[in-house]
From TrEMBL:
Pfam families: LigD_N. Residues 10-123 form the DNA ligase D 3'-phosphoesterase domain. Keywords: Ligase. This is DNA ligase D-like protein (Predicted 3'-phosphoesterase). InterPro entries: LigD_PE_domain. One of its GO terms (molecular function) is ligase activity. It comes from Kribbella caucasensis.
């Protein structure tokens, strides 16, 4: 049985602080910049702006990207784990994640250190929305972006990572 595909959420302090949500699809990390981070509240729709695909190796990257490069700034691995594709077509057959992205709707179950449960990515006219699915892991009263600011790898906050460059 093949291993489950990975996901990673990197907190990135570039031009603006945002969360890069990345899913392993066809050997690369499909990526969306989510300015306010994932929400556990199913009534909250978070903007998710598609960004360039990244290599799988980038899933473990933490550090400070030099000022001269695209996306410069501090990066921490805020969360990571594996996911299960839950996307179904009208006949209730599983749709490949790449095809689901092409169609504009992908539903996944995350099993991470911080994030668990199902989320849906849905394309709008120009961008995407990331929404928590109503399930046992939904919790409108909890904001993990505030209560859990540290990297799951280094234990550093984004500010502490930025200070390592000084």
């Amino acid at each position: 049985m093949p291993e489950a595909p990975l996901f990673v959420v990197q907190l990135h302090d570039a031009r603006r602080l945002h969360y890069d949500v990345r899913l392993e699809v066809d050997g690369v990390l499909k990526s969306w910049a989510v300015p306010r981070g994932p929400s556990l509240d199913p009534t909250v729709k978070r903007l998710a702006v598609p960004t360039d695909d990244h290599s799988i190796e980038y899933a473990e990257y933490e550090g400070v990207i030099a000022d001269s490069k695209y996306g410069s700034g501090a990066v921490i691995v805020w969360d990571a784990g594996v996911y299960t594709n839950l996307t179904l077509d009208k006949q209730r057959r599983r749709i490949d994640p790449a095809e689901a992205i092409d169609r504009g709707h992908l539903k996944v179950r995350l099993r991470g250190v911080k994030l668990t449960g199902a989320w849906a990515f849905t394309r709008t006219d120009q961008d995407w929305l990331l929404v928590k699915v109503r399930d046992d892991d939904a919790d409108p009263s909890l904001d993990l972006t505030i209560t859990e600011p540290r990297s799951i790898l280094s234990g550093l906050t984004i500010e502490e990572m930025a200070a390592t460059r000084a």
